[in-house]
Specification:
There is one protein chain. The chain is mainly beta. It folds into five domains: 43-117, Phage tail protein beta-alpha-beta fold (3-Layer(bab) Sandwich); 122-197, Immunoglobulin-like, CATH 2.60.40.1120; 221-323, no CATH class; 348-498, Porin; 514-661, Porin (Beta Barrel), CATH 2.40.160.20. The protein contains three helices and 46 strands. The chain is globular. InterPro entries: LA_2272-like.
């Protein structure tokens, strides 16, 4: 019995010993694996050297030298990334950090190392003035084709999150009065950056001394109630009135009235009135009125009125009136055809149908308080009819998903009418000897729509419309038809709206723009039929356009081209319609104008086109032609031009054959320029 008990105790003790030894063995095995894992990355490499090698080849050589396998996809590395390293007695971790940019991570799995891209990388640092070595605040930082941007703080610091960098991705730094700076991201090896920006040289002029008030270019006068500059000058804290025939530059705050023939500059805040021939600039808050012919710019809060062809502000709480109005954030009012703000719901594109036109497209720009509307539509099933209209709208927000919009538009409508006085659709059988002409009517529409959001970017709408069509504005050109009758009609419409189909970027100056460029262009007439009895229409235009960047987003354009002119003669119907004839001749022209960029892609322009020769008397020698376009890429643009004298729309396709980019390229920390 005692022997049996001893055997049982001995067996139990043996099991405990085995279990404890097993646990100890597993623990030692884990420690050993951890030590091996740490030792692989800390393993010393006696000597490693590569010269002008790609990242993939450098990793393969390091794997061979260290006898540690690496797992990675070679196609994720930038092809042009070159590595040159010469090190002795470094561990594997140090060598990998020298070879790999910061957008990659590596870790050990068993007896090999896996290299993968990071999903996001945090970059921080400062932006400095290259000449003064001072930090620059409120610099816009844009990552490649991202629609949004970040801004440095007042002390010039930044902290941004960058997704995995693809081939060719860059960080663009842009600010007023500085050259654009591009930071290539593919080969960064540090998460902390010091970016330098080169200031644009400012023309310094010594002013003429007048009475007791004068200006020295090195010693600006302080706290003056009144300043008068014969040419231009610098001052500090002018509190009443400042006048310069060419420019005024106030290096501090400005109060009162500032008038210049060309440009007004206030480095800090402005409270009063700025009037300039070309450009007004305020470095911080603007409270008052900015009035210029070309551009008003406020870096901070704009709580007043901006009136110019282009108005820009960081935060808008006032009113912008112009052709192009841009605000980073807006709770104010924008009045003009092209309004942009970095906020939800705009720009909008809508497709809808109504009781007058089967197919319609609407484009809206602005904010919910007030937005610009451009509509176009057509009917072609049972009759041929089309229209173009513009107007303004306002939205009433009812809930998160519901809103009520009110839109008022004015436009022109054309009806295609055949010689028998009837309208036919595309599927209708027409009389044998029938020909088509058109009549034109005014069209006023008041629309009220209930909008329901079905997703973050898409909504459905339905509502009533009140349509007023005026009488035919042209003489009747066919018998038994007096035009679309004057009509007040209550109708309907429904459709779909989306605000993500068209996106663009709002920044100061875009690095894709050229300092100067030469572009070839092809214009094609859309062949809208006129109602004049004798007409000369450009048929196809070919031109060479030279573009020179002037300031901010303004460029000068001039072009030389030729076109084939189609001339048509016909008589008003008198019992029978005489056969009409066509003739073709060539016309040559020269144009001068300005091109204004609202965003990275969208631009508007105005040209004066002068005919060198005039084949037909109906042609106008000088025409003012507006243009609205979109950059499809770095070299290709697509635009529409309207010729008022011919009442015709053209589509122009342009391609830049050569030019000089409008930016200064800096390499980070090395401060070398290209």
């Amino acid at each position: 019995m005692e022997k049996l008990l001893f055997i049982k105790l001995n067996s139990s003790l043996k099991n405990k010993i085995l279990r404890s030894h097993g646990l100890a063995f597993l623990f030692l095995l884990c420690i050993n694996n951890l030590i091996v894992a740490q030792s692989l990355l800390k393993q010393k490499v006696p000597q490693f050297e590569v010269d002008n090698s790609s990242i993939s080849l450098a990793l393969k050589k390091l794997s061979a030298v260290s006898k540690i396998p690496f797992s990675f996809q070679s196609d994720v590395f930038e092809e042009n990334s070159i590595v040159s390293i010469k090190k002795r007695n470094c561990n594997l971790n140090e060598l990998l950090s020298l070879i790999l940019p910061i957008f990659y991570q590596y870790k050990q799995e068993k007896d090999y190392v896996i290299i993968t891209p990071r999903e996001y990388t945090q970059l921080s640092g400062y932006v400095k003035d290259l000449s003064k070595q001072e930090n620059i605040g409120h610099v816009h930082l844009v990552y490649s084709n991202d629609v949004n941007y970040k801004e440095t703080k007042k002390d010039g610091s930044f902290n941004i999150s960058i997704p995995f960098v693809k081939k060719g991705d860059v960080l663009l730094c842009t600010k007023e009065f500085y050259y654009d700076t591009i930071v290539p991201l593919a080969n960064l090896h540090s998460e902390y950056l010091t970016i330098t920006m080169r200031p644009i040289p400012v023309l310094e002029m010594t002013p003429v001394k007048l009475s007791s008030i004068s200006n020295n270019k090195n010693e600006p006068k302080n706290n003056l109630p009144f300043a008068f500059h014969i040419i231009g000058g610098r001052s500090n804290n002018v509190k009443s009135f400042e006048f310069g025939t060419i420019f005024n530059h106030n290096i501090s705050n400005g109060k009162g009235i500032q008038i210049a023939g060309v440009i007004n500059l206030i480095d800090k805040s402005m409270s009063g009135i700025q009037i300039a021939g070309l450009h007004n600039y305020v470095g911080d808050t603007s409270k008052g009125i900015q009035l210029s012919a070309i551009l008003n710019k406020t870096e901070g809060l704009s709580n007043g009125v901006q009136l110019a062809a282009i108005n820009r502000s960081h935060k808008l709480k006032g009113v912008q009136i112009g052709i192009i109005n841009v605000a980073d954030s807006s709770v104010g009012w924008t009045i003009g055809p092209l309004n942009f703000a970095n906020m939800n719901h705009f720009p909008r594109i809508s497709y809808f149908t109504n009781n007058l036109f089967f197919s319609n497209v609407s484009f809206k720009l602005g904010n919910e308080k007030l937005y610009f509307v451009a509509n176009t539509g057509a009917s072609y099933i049972n009759k041929k009819r089309y229209y173009v209209s513009v107007g303004f709208g306002h939205d009433f927000r009812l809930s998160q998903k519901l809103s009520l919009s009110t839109v008022l538009t004015y436009g022109r409508m054309r009806n295609f009418v055949y010689s028998d006085g009837h309208q036919y659709g595309i599927f209708d059988k027409k009389p044998t000897a029938s020909y088509a002409r058109n009549t034109e009517n005014a069209l006023i529409q008041l629309q009220s729509n209930l909008n329901f959001s079905i997703s973050q970017n898409t909504s459905l709408f339905i509502g009533p419309t009140f349509n007023y069509t005026g009488k035919n504005v042209n003489e009747p050109i066919v018998p038994n038809y007096s035009g679309f009758p004057s009509n007040k009609l209550l109708g309907w419409q429904f459709g779909i709206t989306n605000q993500s189909w068209l996106q663009t970027r709002i920044i100061n100056r875009m690095f894709e723009h050229y300092k100067w460029s030469v572009q070839i262009g092809l214009e094609q007439n859309l062949a809208f039929v006129n109602n004049t009895q004798s007409k000369a229409l450009r048929y196809t235009n070919i031109d060479v356009r030279f573009q020179k960047h002037l300031m901010e987003s303004v460029s000068f354009i001039t072009s030389f081209g030729f076109n084939q002119v189609q001339h048509e003669n016909y008589n008003i119907y008198s019992g029978s319609y005489d056969n009409w004839s066509l003739s073709h001749k060539f016309s040559y022209y020269q144009s001068l104008g300005l091109k204004l960029y609202a965003t990275k892609h969208l631009y508007a322009g105005l040209q004066s086109i002068i005919l060198i020769n005039k084949p037909y008397s109906e042609q106008s020698r000088i025409s003012w032609v507006p243009e609205l376009g979109w950059d499809l890429g770095k070299k290709i643009s697509l635009s529409s031009l309207y010729y008022p004298s011919e009442r015709n729309v053209y589509i122009r396709l342009g391609y830049i054959i050569f030019g000089k980019k409008n930016y200064s390229l800096h390499t980070v920390n090395n401060k070398t320029e290209n």
